[in-house]
Amino acid sequence: MSIIEINNLRRDFQVGDEVVHALRGISFGIEQGEFVSIMGTSGSGKSTLLNILGCLDTPTSGDYIIDGTNVRDLSKRKLATLRNRKIGFVFQSYNLLPRTSALENVELPLLYNKQYSARQRRERAMEAICLVGLEERKNHTSTQLSGGQQQRVAIARALVNNPVILLADEATGNLDTRTSYEIMALFQKLHANGTTIAFVTHEPDIANFTNRTIKLRDGHITDDIPVDTQDAQVALEALPVGDDY
Amino acid sequence: MNITNLLKIALQAIGRNKMRAMLTMLGIIIGIAAVITMLSLGESVRQSMKDEFAEMGTNSIMVMPARQRRGGVDMGKSVSKSLDLKDYNALREGCHYVAAFSPTVSTGAQMVYGSRNHSGAVTGVSPDYLIINNYTMERGLMFTEMDVKSYAKVCVLGKTVVDELFPDGSNPVGQTVRFGNIPMKVIGVLKSKGQGNMGQDADDLALAPYTTVQKRFMGINYFNMLMASAINQESSELAATEITHILRSTHNIGPDDEDDFEVMTMDEILTSMDSVMSLLTLLLTCIAGISLVVGGIGIMNIMYVTVTERTREIGLRMSIGAQQRDILMQFLLESVVLSLLGGMIGIVLGIGMAYIASMLMKTPYIISYSAIALSFFVCVAVGVFFGWYPAKKAANLDPIQALRWE
């Protein structure tokens, strides 16, 4: 079943007198349970695509259908609700709330969903934080956590609302190689559990851990190919021990 | 998001910058404290004024000559000679609701005893004057109707005059004090009353029979004023009506003509003073209120800073599904909480200051509960009013831009 369907999607920006075509009519779909990497250099349109995938932005023309909902004509309110129920974001710079415990950070998306009681929130957040292996550090604030741990908290936060898709924006960009591989191993584990993931990156070795790569250039899709997936856990063990990686 | 969570977020955010929050609240604290102090003080001064009036006799009535016009020229009150012995006698005979009557006629006098002297006024009155004004004797006796009839050269002195003329504490009763060049025998001393209701010295007086002052001092046959005391407070209005009625007939005033005198009851004076006090309190409160506006601007300023500082947080909250309304409420509540916290500190401070001030001024200590309720309301209003634009700015941020904010 297609979680995401994109048909002839365009996004134009008005910059001064000029119209910039960030996306020039792209089409693809993402099936449930896929682990897709979206690659491209800066200016390729991948950030614009990610913003549209994350319902932060709407296309100029064409269709974007997520889990059966066409977002093109949705109001800001409906978009916010859609983000809250169907999407999990992981950012390059984690974006955790300062001086707030890991658990409370993870709970945050559920605060904006009236269907959850305080107890349900706490339970769901605990489940999510166990999933990323940080139950020992649930009461630590972000300054007491390493970069990798902070990103794990951010991933738990993205998972807490049971999103139909997890969107990662250069999620390993601020991390060293070893920690990046650890995070990728976590993504692979989540994928194995059935989570659909779209991973935006410009690093080919990171894209190798995914199952499919969509390459963008100048607002067009240049490649949409399956990947010979590497196991992140294996790659992690293959790293030289005690090195500065 | 529900209000409890929003409140928690607001308190956390304020707790993160305690020093800044404190400084921001300072304007509100000072404003509210000043307003509370002003309102409480106004209330207590008013109360103390009422108390003093009550002590002086809330049933007292004053009859004064009205302003005179001659050929269209306003002659003022002082030239009026409309109240005289004929009126006094008619009133004494005709009034049923009046317990005591005294004319007053007053003139300045240099009082000399031995090498000491004191500049004051000698007031001609009848013996009833003591009853009307709640004076009591400390030493000696008040003069009598006999003394009035005989133009006796006797006087009763107030404490201040005694202290000036007899600094060694010797008994003035029986001594002779010279008023200008008229020697008068001191026959009594009044018990001290302290400050009068207008803040003047109620003990700086010398009383003599009105006839003595009229004939021997001034050479006139009219009075400055007639003072009366109603049989009780309730009947003071009736007494006033009665007095008006009698005076109109003795003065031969036709039914369509205006009174050539003025009757004032203490109630009326109290009411008019009360309204003056209210106005004064209101004015001072308004001035104090200005600092509330300044405090509000302080909050607005810091809320703008907060919104800018937390742009990424706002972007994140939006990306995980916060509605614009949620963000608006979050920052609005933060400014309201900030303002309310300041208000509460200000209320405590204001109550303390009102307490100290009432101790110093020796007025009764009154907490103005309406002022406290008003303060709460004002704080919420200030928080909402000055927090609205920063919160609106936060809510209108574009999540994509906000997330990229450095």
Describe the 3D structure.
The complex is a heterodimer of chains A (245) and B (406). Chain A is an alpha/beta fold. Chain A has one domain (34-57, 78-238): P-loop containing nucleotide triphosphate hydrolases (Rossmann fold, 3-Layer(aba) Sandwich), CATH 3.40.50. Chain A is 34% helix and 28% strand. In chain A, the strands form two sheets. Chain A has a six-stranded mixed sheet with strand order 6-7-8-3-9-10. A four-stranded antiparallel sheet of chain A has the order 2-1-4-5, with helices on one face. The radius of gyration of chain A is 18 Å and the shape is globular. Chain B has 13 helices and twelve strands. In chain B, helix 2 (18-57) crosses helix 11 (324-361) and helix 9 (266-309) packs parallel to helix 12. The longest helix of chain B has 44 residues, at 266-309. In chain B, 56% of the residues lie in helices and 18% in strands. By secondary structure, chain B is an alpha+beta fold.
Mean pLDDT of chain B: 87
The CATH topology of chain A, please? Rossmann fold
Strand fraction of chain B equals 15-25%
Largest sheet of chain A: 6 strands, mixed
Strand order of the largest sheet of chain B: 4-5-10-7-9-8
Could you tell me the number of beta strands of chain A?
Answer: 10
Give the helix tally of chain A.
Answer: 8
SSE string of chain B, helices as H and strands as E: HHEEEHEEHEHEHEEEHEHEHHHHH
Class inferred from helices and paired strands of chain B: alpha+beta
Instruction: Please tally the β strands of chain B and state the result.
Output: 12
CATH architecture of chain A: 3-Layer(aba) Sandwich
Shape of chain B: elongated
Q: Tell me the overall shape of chain A.
A: globular
Counted up, domains of chain B total: 2
Low-confidence stretches of chain A: none
Q: State which percent range the strand residues of chain A make up.
A: 25-35%
Q: Largest sheet of chain B, described in full?
A: 6 strands, mixed, barrel
* CATH level 1 class label of chain A: Alpha Beta
Q: Which chains make the largest contact?
A: A-B, 26 and 21 residues
In terms of quaternary structure, the protein is heterodimer
